[in-house]
Write a structure and sequence with these properties.
about 250 residues, alpha/beta, Rossmann fold, three-stranded mixed sheet
Amino acid sequence: MLEDLGGGSFRREKALLRKLVWDKLVELKVALPPPPHGRIPNFKGAEVAARMLAETPEWRGARVVKVNPDSPQRWVRLRALSEGKILLMPTPRLREGFLLLDPKRIPRSLYERASTIRGAFEMGVKLRSLEDLVNTIKNIDFIVEGSVVVNQCGERLGKGEGYGELEYAVLLELNLVDPNVIIATTVHELQVVEERIPQDPYDVPVDVIVTPRRVVRVQRCRSRPPGVLWDLLDERKLKEIPILGELRSRVKR
């Protein structure tokens, strides 16, 4: 896991915010399976939020989109395939790199299955190495991240493992995304908080928040990291994620 520069109290503050949101989603009966705690929470209205995202000009103009593999964004992945967009999906924990799903190579009747993690592994092309990525993808036009908590400054918390941040950083290092690529998140209204959210240097803010009720274009309160912050990276991640270790070796040469 990436180091917490703020010490134990900083880490606890992040954990408390996540727990408050997870608990509230359960208490108000808007959480959908699987159970939300420890995950990017699935929620009632996720399909509506995906539809509202698809109506934004930023989404409509995108040809290649990267979408996280979590349950609530399955509707976003299905939208991408149904609209003829090339979909790049990280494998869980990035251990097997990325999956590329080209809707032209998948029967339309199987789009719904392809939008699930299991279906994506069955029908997607694995991009396990840096060479696979740069030879297959030229530019990613739009990114969708899952969130546990987000605010109108664009500050967000995922489930606390840092994979979304690493995915963005790797793609940035390979020049496959522009530093100012639009990053969106789809969440329940209860996941949007008023207060500032503790952020580490590697945390990546979002530009667009979509709930089942509204679309919020944020005024970012902080800049994005310039790539992988190697000095803050746990060595365990380099061993667990081959594509990250490969990038580190390339950087060192």
